[in-house]
Amino acid sequence: MKVLILGGTAEARALAQALSDTGVPIVSSLAGRVARPRLPVGEVRVGGFGGPEALATWLQEHAIGTVIDATHPFAERISASAAQAARAAGVPLLRLERPGWEPGAADRWHWVEDLPEAAAAVGALGAARVLLTSGRQGLSAFAGDGARWFLIRCVDPPDGPLPEHHEVLLDRGPYTLEGELALIDAHGIDTLVTKDSGGPLTEAKLHAARLRGLPVVVVRRPPRQDVPTVPTVAEATAWLRRQPSG
Ligand code: NAP
């Protein structure tokens, strides 16, 4: 029976590679949001399933023996859908989630619950020039802020209303410390906004902010589903081997 990997992350691609290398049959699933996604090895399907009931049916129709939810820590709906569908279909589910970032002693991090709180926080901090790296979704939270300038960096163009003063920079990691320092300096950035995405590919901005003494507004992760969770690909493959179908 196949393993369904819910993907869209570097961990999901690494897991697909690790399982393919050992001959485990897999199918990876992508949401289809990104114009030119980095594809995992092996079979790939693209697009939403149509909600948890439809996902449960899909699992049964495609003879899926196990599901590994390796989606992004902020992809809340698909994780909730996977938990519900796996329960309904009687298929074991594992969550593979990279650890969040931790501030260093010299860091000036301001934790917030969501993007509207992040928008309020940049105002409270008196920011003038903000590097906004929270992705292309939910940026309307900043749309009413005409008091500062935003450099909005994301993979694909954002949709919805944006703040009056902004520039969009389409780019995708991994990013380097030198690159992030150059970006901060070139644009006179005084504040960074990020989600607590975790992982090494995009963390250089946090080191750059530390070196430049910039405050960082960090959006906390949403609450997790109550499912077994591991932080690494190695632990996910070990879990899979312990499953009756593994
Ligand atoms: P989301 O809000 O949790 O999901 C919205 C809907 O998109 C889901 O209900 C599901 O549709 C579909 N979907 C999401 N991931 C899917 C997948 N891997 N395979 C099939 N359908 C999927 O997710 P999101 O925050 O928009 O993120 C979309 C994708 O981008 C995720 O796969 C995630 O791993 C990746 N990603 C997200 C972020 C982020 O910051 N949110 C960052 C980097 C990468 P149905 O209900 O119709 O099944």
Describe this entry's structure for a reader.
The chain has 246 residues and is α/β, with parallel strands linked by helices. It is built from 7 helices and 12 strands. The strands form 2 sheets. A 6-stranded parallel sheet has the order 3-2-1-4-5-12, with helices on both faces. The model has no long low-confidence stretch (mean pLDDT 96).
The biggest sheet, with number of strands, parallel, antiparallel or mixed sense and barrel status, is:
6 strands, parallel
Radius of gyration: 19 Å
- Succession of helices and strands: EHEEHEHEEHEEEHEHEEH
Q: How much helical structure, as a percent, in the residues?
A: 25-40%
Class inferred from helices and paired strands: alpha/beta
How many strand units? 12
Which ligands appear in the coordinates? NADP nicotinamide-adenine-dinucleotide phosphate
Runs in which pLDDT lies below 50 for 5 or more consecutive residues are: none
The backbone outline, from C-alpha atoms, is elongated
**Continuous helix count:** 7
Strand content: 15-25%
Give the overall pLDDT as a whole number. 96
Q: How far do the termini sit from each other?
A: 9 Å
Biggest sheet strand line-up: 3-2-1-4-5-12
